[in-house]
Amino acid sequence: MAKLIAKPAAGELLPLTIGPLTLSDLPQERITAIAPYPGKTDEVSAALDKLGLAFPAPGTSRQAARARILWAGRDLAFLIGAAAPAGLGPLAAQTDQSDGWVGLALSGPGGEAVLARLVPLDLSLAAFPEGATARTGLGHVTILLHRTGAESFALYLFRSMIATAVHELEAVMRALLARASL
Predict the structure, then answer these.
(1) Phi, psi of 44 (to 5 degrees)
(2) What's 19's domain CATH number?
(3) Residues 43 and 18 in one domain
(4) Distance CA 136, CA 145 (A)
């Protein structure tokens, strides 16, 4: 019988360190899209309280232990790192996104400058503080962007677009390093 071996979505492309910045795979985790039925958001928050979470307000995230929930669009959030709590079925549509989405981590000084060339948002710490999330584009790749620290970001994207996203990020990282060397 064949033995399957799990491999990172980016394969040999990552990790990548250029100057002070590192781009790497995030560990593959369970990702569940949760979309509360009309008028059920408060009840969904009560159900998520079993994990120490609540349904996030637009542009925000919540974290408890290893589980986190990121706002991902109107009436939509991604629960990452934990199974959806029991009893959520009558309150919200749930879809397992684990095989379709992957995560990248961009960390180090200058991460904002890299993303500023590809993402049409103000990513300064004042405008996009730690914990902030946005569904946006990275060039022409749709991503869910999450600021995880003062100098770190998580980018969630379709698995099929990982090579394109890595290529785009690497090109900007190299260009900024070359510019700093002048």
Answers:
(1) -65, -45
(2) 3.30.1360.120
(3) no
(4) 7
